[in-house]
Amino acid sequence: MAEHERPLDDDDVILAGEEQEEGARPDDRIDDERMDEENTLKREFVSSVEDALEAGETGAVYDLVEPLHPADVADLLELFDKDDRATLAAAITDLMTSEVVAELNDYVREEMMEALPADAVAQIAEQLETDDAVQLIEDLDEDDQRAILAELEPEDRIAIQSALSYPEETAGRLMNREFVAVPEHITVGDLIDYLRDGRELPEDFFEVFIVDQRHHPVGTCNLSWILRTPRSIALGDVMKRDQTLIPAMLDQEEVALMFQKYGLISAAVVDEDGRLVGQMTVDDIVHIIAEEAGEDALLMSGAGEGDINEPIREAYSSRVRWLVANLGTALIASLIIAAFGAAIEKLVALAVLMPIVASIGGNAGTQTMAVTVRAIAMNQLTRSNTRRILTRELRVALLNGVTIAVLIGAATAVIFTPLLGAVIALAMIINVVTAGLAGVLVPVAFDRLDQDPAVASSVFVTMITDSMGFFAFLGLAVALQVV
Amino acid sequence: MAEHERPLDDDDVILAGEEQEEGARPDDRIDDERMDEENTLKREFVSSVEDALEAGETGAVYDLVEPLHPADVADLLELFDKDDRATLAAAITDLMTSEVVAELNDYVREEMMEALPADAVAQIAEQLETDDAVQLIEDLDEDDQRAILAELEPEDRIAIQSALSYPEETAGRLMNREFVAVPEHITVGDLIDYLRDGRELPEDFFEVFIVDQRHHPVGTCNLSWILRTPRSIALGDVMKRDQTLIPAMLDQEEVALMFQKYGLISAAVVDEDGRLVGQMTVDDIVHIIAEEAGEDALLMSGAGEGDINEPIREAYSSRVRWLVANLGTALIASLIIAAFGAAIEKLVALAVLMPIVASIGGNAGTQTMAVTVRAIAMNQLTRSNTRRILTRELRVALLNGVTIAVLIGAATAVIFTPLLGAVIALAMIINVVTAGLAGVLVPVAFDRLDQDPAVASSVFVTMITDSMGFFAFLGLAVALQVV
Known about the structure:
Chains A, B: Homodimer. Chain A is mainly α.
């Protein structure tokens, strides 16, 4: 009302317009016309790229893709199937920067690189930082690797060969070989002058390492400490002496846990002689943290890598192996049922009820196993507290077992007979407690044998709960003379 | 040999000693006498603390714990049970710094804070950065919260109340309210002088935000760019204009995905009007990334939070709900079996074999579901590629189904009859393909309904594969007149 009573002036209009726009989209990457509220590419946008590609309008495709962030270009490529992906890549050659390649899913990148000639891959590799270049090359055939390495500048080749000399998934393979290391005696002013010189600096860095003459790290300085310190102060007086050093042979899972545990942004990597050879930064680690934390669900279900971009042949081969193993455990359970064939013939209710005991036991075992595997992965479950956790899980299992036993026991007593109700209740308690025991002990045992507890535990836990479920129920039914 | 021929001098001895020490343990946090090769506290070390505690030797306990990193002190506290934990905390009061409290597991921290008087908690909260202080307070009762807030300095109180005004698990709740923001026109030299003044700076920061008069972010400068730029250059000429802004209301899961996708170290948080209100740094995000990536395995198994420090009552309550839901689905499967009771009575082999079909179907469904849930969580599965992924999974399912069908069909044909072999093979293919379909469609459907696909999917998938397993096998047996 009030607004209608006075004429709007320019200021009003501009402010209103700006406020509206900014209120509606505080971030141009989020509430974009291309991105949905989950920050993924909108269906409509992807369709318009598809349509332009099919119509052969290369210029239109380019104009659509050009405003995207490299990570989103990578996402777009991943959304297409193999053939369309190649067409799209050809239409946006200029936009296929090294950043896009670095952001691609491993399977998609490998597939795309295999389709390119060695010199084209070498050209991309040269633009990448060492760690990304290594990722690009490490999964290719040895012949392809050699051809690409031959095309590289000597300096890049040496860096990549040095990385490839470390085992896969170790700090030495993954680290960045560009970092800033200076002696202890130089001052903040010296350092700033050196950095302003700008020779051979990494593009981004978050700390400066202080080394002695033998190139052993003696301390570290966050850049924010340097910026707030007068020029005349020596770095030795600003630096923190106590720093986390990463051995080059350390597995990426342990590296990721160290970054998490100590809240690191970057850290120095040292070789066996304690010499500084590289650094790892947290932006490379977040992928590893997410990968390692997420893979347990896939491993426990036997889905292998579980990547939707994995070739069908590989997905089939890893999953079917698991199903065959489970077929084996199912057969063992069947043998137990077969042993009680005479009882089932007399009382078919046994066949009707027996899967319930096995199924609930399986679920209870999976719950405990998931908790145990997670605690082992996070280094929370160690030799020092295994007994305490086992006691805890058995108490939870007993509570769960009794609750479910009361429910199914009562229902069975009403529908069938009170005695059969007692049998299924007792069998249920036995099986749920067994599940709790197996859910802790099986993964702990695999961990102590230096096997990944996520990989093999569930086959064993399921075998135990299935067999115990059928055995306890059918065995009690016979022992208590239900039939 | 050569060494024996000449007398050792001091230099040799020192060098040899140093080399050995450094060669043996390049990092004092890894090959420590207290830490094992996985960087967790050694059993022997924990036992010696336990023994000293039991003997009441407070001084010895203090000396043992004193050299530990705060994160390791937190780990040590978590290893003990509730009572011993309180005794330990009392023995090392001086070492119970705010860093230790910030590193504690949520449940353990909450339990310890509840045992302390309000002013002691307030004292700890004041030493913490806002985000850590909020974590300390948010899970307490409202009465406790109010008592603690009353004890705080007004400035800290306002910051914490502002954080608590945002919903849990949003950027506004989690962000740090200390950051460096300067106008565009100031020079690198001005900024360095301002930082050297050192008033009210956050302890660590990785970028400087450039804001306009309305406090809207217009660009950002990594500290490494500032350090390499001459004093006279204006920040407006160094900064990057294109930056990722995080809306304060954004959920932590989406924040974590943005940090991963764009490789961020820190990012500005803006309110609805686009004003800069805080920053998030990646060291706070890594915990969220690990939590979000790891929780799917726990959610899919119905283990709730799945934290080994969760009180037994809560663990029981979340798990038993799941088991009751599974009891419901098991009963549906039983109804199907009961409908074929007459057939089972005639041929008990049906009861022996039927769990195999259900079990393999359940496993196949869980595999596909794990892959789908992970792809949805990583924003890899969107409306644009759902159909392609469904086709892919059905192809894998068909391959798996046929392989297992051949194995179990042949075995059944030999042991029982060829016709029963054909029945189980056909039922197996039907059930594994159904499992593939359900494994994709159930989680996708929950996601489209804005429900977490990890939470409810497996109850439905298992129900579908169990029911279909029994129905296809027993139904085909009757239809093909095996009995």
